């Protein structure tokens, strides 16, 4: 199956502050905030929704196409994608602009202050052609350039190609009419529980309204697991327990990679979700969103330990 993943590519620059933000922010001076945090160091990781999902899919034997933009500093990220056998033909390089970057500072309470520079993501990508009526292709539309998200959804609808829509952290940039139009006709709407509530508020829809527009609603709930919602028939797929949760940051994107792998294998939706939570369990055991060393055998072994023999 041809899998196209539209979304962000970014460098995550992660910093640790060996203290507590609250000790350095004066509540009565919040209107003139001027603070500086001395960090222990900076670690750069490869990130962005599209890159993270594609990484997990590649580890599970797929070769998805990333549809995104990158900047003049993309060379080392591109080498990483090549190393993981990921095609880069639909990644558009924007000259004289930096690749998107997230600058994340975390304190001892796991509070985070993040600055995000969209960089090349502010520019539209080149969207690949879709064969009309193809049942051997799927499009995943994740948070990224809003014009790309709308255009790719429209292109998939016109071609009759199934697409997943996941607005993620892009929700603050949408109007009611835009978000309604973008999600209309999606095979699956994915989000976390907070994003689902915010989406319904922005769209001014009820869940029943969303059921009228998409076939499946899948909502991640962190350590509780995932809710599979088939037009009101809800099933909780529990998270997979791991001994050492090192970094939950990439769990959501890893889940989406496992979910899409299940869809590519034409699994039932509950199995797709189970595959998603298994992939997520591997991600949280490592620091960073593209650090989990995963192969199909290890994946199947953990799946069988939690859900029984995999159906493939």
TrEMBL record:
GO molecular function: kinase activity
Entries under InterPro entries matching the protein: Carboh/pur_kinase_PfkB_CS, PfkB_dom, Ribokinase-like
Keyword tags: Kinase, Transferase
Family matches, as CDD domains: ribokinase_group_A (cd01942)
All residue ranges annotated as the Carbohydrate kinase PfkB domain in the record: 41-292
Alphabetized SUPFAM superfamilies for the sequence: Ribokinase-like
Top-level taxon in the UniProt lineage: Bacteria
Protein name in the entry: PfkB domain protein
Source species of the chain: Syntrophobacter fumaroxidans (strain DSM 10017 / MPOB)
């Amino acid at each position: 199956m041809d899998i196209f993943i539209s979304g962000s590519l970014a460098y995550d620059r992660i910093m640790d502050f060996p203290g507590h933000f609250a000790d350095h922010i004066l509540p009565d001076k919040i209107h003139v905030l001027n603070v500086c945090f001395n960090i222990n160091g900076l670690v750069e990781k490869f990130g962005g929704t599209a890159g993270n999902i594609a990484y997990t899919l590649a580890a599970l034997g797929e070769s998805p196409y990333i549809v995104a933009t990158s900047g003049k500093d993309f060379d080392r990220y591109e080498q990483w994608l090549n190393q993981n056998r990921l095609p880069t033909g639909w990644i558009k390089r924007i000259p004289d602009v930096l690749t998107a970057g997230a600058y994340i500072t975390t304190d001892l309470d796991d509070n985070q202050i993040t600055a995000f520079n969209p960089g090349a993501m502010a520019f539209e990508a080149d969207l690949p052609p879709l064969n009309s009526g193809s049942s051997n292709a799927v499009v995943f539309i994740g948070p990224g350039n809003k014009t790309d998200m709308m255009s790719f959804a429209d292109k998939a609808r016109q071609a009759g190609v199934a697409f997943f829509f996941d607005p993620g952290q892009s929700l603050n940039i949408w109007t009611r009419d835009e978000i309604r139009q973008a999600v209309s006709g999606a095979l699956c709407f994915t989000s976390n529980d907070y994003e689902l509530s915010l989406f319904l508020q922005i769209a001014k829809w009820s869940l029943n309204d969303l059921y009228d527009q998409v076939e499946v609603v899948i909502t991640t709930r962190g350590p509780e697991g995932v809710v599979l919602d088939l037009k009101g028939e809800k099933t909780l797929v529990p998270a997979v327990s791991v001994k050492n949760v090192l970094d939950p940051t990439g769990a959501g994107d890893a889940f989406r990679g496992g979910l899409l792998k299940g869809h590519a294998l034409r699994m039932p939706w509950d199995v797709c979700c189970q595959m998603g939570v298994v992939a997520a369990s591997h991600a949280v055991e490592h620091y960073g969103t593209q650090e989990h060393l995963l192969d199909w055998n290890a994946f199947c072994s953990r799946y069988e330990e939690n859900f029984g023999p995999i159906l493939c």
